[in-house]
Fold these 2 entries.
Entry 1:
Amino acid sequence: MPQSFRLENIGLINRNKKLSFKFNGKTYFGYEGDTLASALIANGVHLIGRSFKYHRPRGFFGAGVDEPYAIVQLYRNGETEPNIKATEQELFEGLEAKSVNCWPSVNFDVGAINNFLKIFLPAGFYYKTFMWPKSFWYKIYEPFIRKAAGLGVASIEHDKERYEHKYEYCDLLIAGSGPSGLASAYAAAKNGARVILAEDKSRFGGTLLTSEVNIGNKSGKEWADGIISELKEMPNVTVKNRSQVFGYYDHNMLVMSERISDHLPETKKFHPKQRLWYIRAKEVLISSGSIERPIVFGNNDTPGVMLSSAAKEYLKVYGVLVGKNPLIFTNNDSGYETAIEFKKNGIESVILDTRKNPQSEIVEEAKNLGIKIKFSYVVVAAQGYKKVKSADIAKISDDKEQLGVIENIKCDCICVSGFWTPTIHLASQSGNKTKFNEDIDAFVPGVSKQNEKTLGAANGVYTLDETLKSSLEIGHKLSKKITKSDNKISFPNVVEKKSTVHDKFWCVPLPKGKSYKRFLDFQNDVAVSDVEIALKEGYRSIEHVKRYTTLGMATDQGKTSNLNGLQLVSKIENKVVPNVGHTTFRPPYTPVSIGAIVGREVGKHSKPTRKSPMHLWHEKNNAIFVDAGVWLRPRYYKQGNENLFEASKREAKNVRTNVGVCDVTTLGKIDIKGPDAAELLNRVYTNAWLKLPVGKARYGVMLREDGIVMDDGTTTRISENHYHMTTTTAQAANVLSHLEYYLQLVWPELNVNVVSTTEQWAGAAIAGPKSRDLLQKLFPNNDVSKEGLPFMGFMEGDLFGVKARIFRISFSGELAYEVNVESDNGNFMWEKIMELGQEFKIQPYGTEALSTLRIEMGHVAGSELDGRTIPYDNSLEGLLSKKKDFIGKRSLTRAAFTAIDRQKVVGVVPLDKKTSIPEGSHLVKDSNAPLPNPKLGYISASCWSVEYDNPFSLAILKDGKNMIGEKLFVMSPLKNKVIPVEIVSSHYVDPKGERVRS
Amino acid sequence: MLHIKCPHCGMRSQNEFSYGGDASVKRPELGKEISDEEWNNFVYNRKSLRGKHWELWQHLSGCRQWIKVERDTATHEIFKTLKANEEIS
């Protein structure tokens, strides 16, 4: 298919490289350097999608980031991505894209019936209509709206691409490489500052690529190219294209998204697709330029109606004609520049100027070129459904209220210019108080809050001469402040055409008897009439009008619609625009892919994975792992076709009858040293610590200041002033911070140091009646007899030449020990234990069996110490010292904590001794009581008791102390279970603790 | 993301720190008899100021020191940072 709208001798595309691509299944050709939009227009394709609400035909409106219409679903290298702007997507060989929001096709779209129903779909329609009947919402309204809504489909596949994050520091960050960005970057770089220059598009230069100017005897583009190549050579400068600075955050941190591979058919090996830059800049220069504003008229959303600057960009950058019979509708001189470019390329256009008699160099030039101009004329309405075919035009009175006789004029596109809106998003995000500039009818940055300055068109300065002058100056001034150097750049001679003032006219009145839709927001289909309704219904704040009508709430964030919306509200409300105010600008300036935001922190990389030194052994021995905080722990070791239940039962039973070994490396370990170490322990633990002898361990509980249990564990006195504290796996980091807090801030007089040694020690718990026999084999040189190493005793041992710490502590209810060796020796220790344990029928056990063993003996753990329970609730009140104060003690006297029917941990056994009890179930008195059935407690942990071979659970039960022997019901509405149970002591196995002391 | 000057390490990004609340709170002395109201004020009641606020941060992924930071809770401006043992002036 020929590119019938492509010109031969103009444009910056590479005509030597032809690219094929598909749109809606049809193959087209474009060139390297095209965007999807420019390539489609070159092929005469103007119908690209359907609008969000009314499903009206959609074409192209802009040529870049401001595009509200041309959103497509992109297919690249086997993956798909929605919400891609055709005006930003660079063409690559094999690109595929499809229209969105249309069914069955963009040419024949069923949803377009909304367009004929539009009288029924005014502002707030959804709010008003889908409220009743309530039951209809889930079944009818919501699925229907969901299907009807949306601009594309998110992929449900795993994203195979890689995204990276990068942190960077610089002296000056400059956002935008137009004239002001280039000049300021150049001045600052030449003065020695570290500069990052970011350009959103693939080409540097901004408006210099399309405007007819002369800088230092070079064309704008030549000058820009020269500066860029010089900057790229400088070691203190980073120049980035395809990079959008989209957010301005606190303390001068900006975030930029760099699209590294989106313009390629596939990402190169070892390259990321996109990179997110977190940039901390000393100074920020915002040179983001301005966006042309539309003029509002009837059917102004018809494909073929577009910004005049976009028409000029398609022509000069891509060599593409947006039409062969253009009509230019303008209220300022910019429209003339587009007409002049058309004329130079052999295309005759007609200019409708709302002004009566403008006088300027540019207007003169157009007249001299013989371009047809109609002054005091407006477009009343575009005609044509899927493409502009003609325009209804009329003369307008001097007060802009009365339309003359309507004439029809043939045209195939309407290029609109309603003057320019500075892009102040970044300045506003930084906290800059913007102000309204009457001369340009737009907001410009006011007083800076952070170290930011706005330059050039973004600051409302529209002449090149002034822009370059001020930008060079500011670049020099700011860099001088940082580098203390004083190298000045001489100011180049600038030639540009002078323009005259614009006309404040922005909205064409409706002719009598006509009801054309006049759109303000092209992406969300918000028309003048919608805003009128919102105001009539009493919405006053611009923020409310925005949310009710959805004006400016689409993915383009109202880049082309906000200001006209404000003009309308101010006109109806009879207020000036600054008093209406503008809605808040929030990052991101333009959509950023979720992949880029997440970076590499996906899947297993979302947090670090910690593995014990014995991990490989576990893997080799069929361990099934479970995430325990950041650790991977064996949950059970699978034998044959065993499932979790069978394996954990076998492992737990082997501990009760023979001996088992469990990897307890993950326990938090804190080394505590100093003459006041005992005093610190005495303050943070609830029980007494001053008299613990050397070589002994003690179990301790620590509270938060509010009396809630924070953690438990054992601490061992290694030597006079040296203690070894263990914490639960989950609380290790918090406990260390907790100790540091008290030592550094509350009791700095205590002479103690604490340091985490979690990763320095590998630990193995050896538990079961035969554990002592095994221990004696492991430590033939040590006396580990009942007398030599009594319960809660500690000794240093010699494990075949490896130094070890042996603790006689138990969390299983059995005779048990914990052996620690330096991490590097962990695997040696483990293999020795397994080797010498053979004769005692040793088996490794995982966290599931570990849980079973601790639940059976009623030892509370994380599921009971859940941040809601006090020592009494966990039957730990025996550990509360009456003689001394400790953290959280005062809180335990609160009325609720001393109530006589306070909750307490109990054991729960099903009456049938068969039915397993789901964790999290509720305990109630009467299973048939009317709802809400009063809840007496909840099941905190469940297991299958290997001692009694029936289910057993722990529960936190109201007045648990007096409930032993009661019959209650466990109810689990989630699992639809009602189980009659008996309340028993939480110490189900070995209630007197004889085995652990044996 | 805030940029916080650790008095021990220098300027660091917020993601190296964890927040620790109002720095003006003083823990009652151990063993001292105090009223319920006084204890409740210590444990629960905070002013939650808008504006200048002395607060605690811990340089968790750095030197692990608790520090005092004077920050404007509305604008995030940081005026001063102190070591744990330096008195708020």
Entry 2:
Amino acid sequence: MAALIDLRQRIKGVKSTQKITKAMKMVAAARMRRAQSDILAARPYATHMRDMLDSLTRRVNPTNHPLLRVRGDENIELVIVTGDKGLCGSFNTNIIKQSEDFLEARKSDKKLYLNLVGRKGRDFFKKRNFNIKHEYVGIYNDLNYDYAIQIADQMIQEYTEKQLDAVYMVYNEFKSVLQQRVVVERLLPIGEIDMDSSNDDVDYIYEPTETEILEQLIPLHIRTQVWRVLLESNAAEQAARMNAMENATNNAQDIIESLTLKMNKLRQQTITTQLIEVVSGADALKG
Amino acid sequence: MIGKFKLEIVTPNRLVLKEEDVDEFSAPGIEGYFTALPGHTPYLVLLSEGKMSYRKGKEWHYMTVLNGYAEVLPDHITVLAEKSEKADEIDIERAQEAKKRAEERIKDIQQSEVDFERARAALARAILRLDVSKNRRMN
């Protein structure tokens, strides 16, 4: 009998866990849709910005701009974008693993600095011996453009002051609901802006000059890039969590089914034994 | 027939405005306010912080702009700005509070230059928003 009660209790426990995972899945799904629409909303701005930079760099000789020129890679900053929360499958671990590989490959001959976005990455790297320059924790609750400005301007400043020679970002790209991809990307220096010479060039009147406009636009462009990364990572995190919770819900279902089967078998067995006992007892009395 | 503009205002967060048949457009260029009419020569201009407006028929519409540029083509204007708000969208109460806060901070003499500059910028922004919000249309 004790075994039967244990089984019932376990089924109850798994069921309530399943309810939680199901609810978390719904929440993640809603947040993901929101994040996806944010990505879409940011796209026109980014596209326009890129087109304009294209057209400007084709006119101006951009190699003089400090943010474009490559000047060696003695001091490298790696911006690691993780989530603030767990329970999202391998979302955070993938990023951390990739970052470790990146750092391992360069640690012997370069100076490395970390810029940690998201609590999970912060917690991981804080315990290890790294040079952490900045950390941003808890920004996903009210993700807005001001964070992108802050992060971007900080790195631009340190880059122009030559504290840094290159800035890389590692983050999860939102490929689709079912797929996230870890990407390592160089943000600074921009290097060559890929030119799409098929565009027709318009002869603008510039105010102020082309060069000055370009100089103003490049920092704005970096901010947009950082913003895009934050949005991508946010959407990817929600998608990862949604999938993880979906799997958890399915697994809970499997466990419930196998436990129920076991319980029914046990119950039947007990009844059978009891019946046999009763029948054979009656037989003995008759005998 | 006199032509019309298409007008688009885009920020990183959203498409603020997409309007057809605009007759006149005015914005704070980095070297001063300018007004563009349909058929304008291609013109690329950085914008400073200020009040943007456009006319459609007889009605003027107003909005704020911060940090961006405008691309004027004969039949199309695109404004890319980090922030932009239409007059109707401005939260007047919040702007007033921000103004008060900034004024208090400016009065505080014991602050560094950076803080002062920051407070000054915040004050300018709050005043701008209040100014634009006066052109809110009630409907």
